[in-house]
Amino acid sequence: MIVVMRRGASQENVQAVVERVKELGFRPHLSVGEERTIIGVIGDERTLNENVFRLMEGVEKVVRILKPYKLASRDFHPHDTIVPINDISIGDKRVVIIAGPCAVESREQILETAQAVKEAGAHILRAGAFKPRTSPYSFQGLGQKGLELLAEAKAKTGLAVVTEVMAPELVPVVAACADILQVGTRNMQNFSLLHAVGESGKPVLLKRGMMSTMEELLMSAEYILSHNNNQVILCERGIRTFETYTRNTLDISAVPVLKQLTHLPVLVDPSHATGNWEWVTPLSLAAIAAGADGLLIEVHPHPDKALSDGDQSLRPERFAELVNKARAVALAVGREL
Ligand code: PEP
Ligand code: MN
Predict the structure, then answer these.
(1) Which ligand is nearest to the CA of 309?
(2) Residues 49-57: contacts with CB within 8 Å, 24+ apart?
(3) Are residues 254 and 105 located together in one domain of the fold?
(4) 247 close to ligand 1 (CB < 6 Angstrom)
(5) Which ligand is nearest to the CA of 163?
(6) Model confidence over 59-80: pLDDT tens digits?
(7) Do 117 and 32 fall within a single domain?
(8) Could you say which of 44, 98, 266, 314 would form a disulfide bridge with 124 (CB–CB 3.0 to 4.6 Å)?
(9) Total domain count, the chain
(10) What is the pTM assigned to this prediction?
């Protein structure tokens, strides 16, 4: 952290800042220029609130040097983190495809979809049992019954399962069935949930808040990592902008930026980003070209009958086409699928 003094700040002002730096357990480094003095604050500044200096007499501004997150940062951990899920490695050379319906709706629906996505080349099955819905009158998911059906789909297909957990007290219940716990966009800053999934020791798929910056996403990842759980997978799923043709705006730039800032794997969910199945394939290809480690795709055998997100769900045969196209792009950018 650097404290920049105002032009004409007195010796006493400078000395007071130097003393405060020492009091707080940091080392001051004074640099007296022709026009103004700057004071370097040496030590791990992440625990330091810049207001302790900003509000002092004679201080013009305080500049942070370190990123506010540490465990999630590539500076701290230069090599890519690879999250192993059975025989799948998320964050490795192979682009990982996670697919399935928005929600578990019935035994037939989840078993049929699981089999279809597996045949089309998906590596992991997704489906919500506990659904975060905007309206309390909308289908809320099958809850515990949904988890049981997911467990059956997992046993029948051998696919690992990712499903959302919405509350800290549900973590043990969901963790008993899921291979990966999903924290949805609406809960990205539910800090008690982040602590709970961190403590569970399970892999966590953390979706970017629809109104959150990349830095906020990384700070949320930091909560999970701070429990010594390094199995965190990030997911860009679209953010809110002024554009209304799409449900959200897929922030494709998040892929290379996050890959640079963090060692954690980065997935893209073009289904919730666009809200329309017709744009899911082109954005999937763009995501892989941009360096995404995998995709999260909603697939439903009968989108017209889906209880949630039918508009954005691909029919299995269209999903199979997507996988073939994605494979070609993956190979073109030095990945595998
Ligand atoms: C989901 O993936 O099921 C979901 C609800 O997505 P999001 O949290 O990104 O809206
Ligand atoms: Mn959905």
Answers:
(1) 2
(2) 50/1, 52/20, 52/24, 53/1, 53/3, 53/17, 53/20, 53/21, 56/13, 56/16, 56/17, 56/20, 57/9, 57/13, 57/16
(3) yes
(4) no
(5) 1
(6) 999 999 888 899 999 999 999 9
(7) no
(8) 98
(9) 2
(10) 0.94
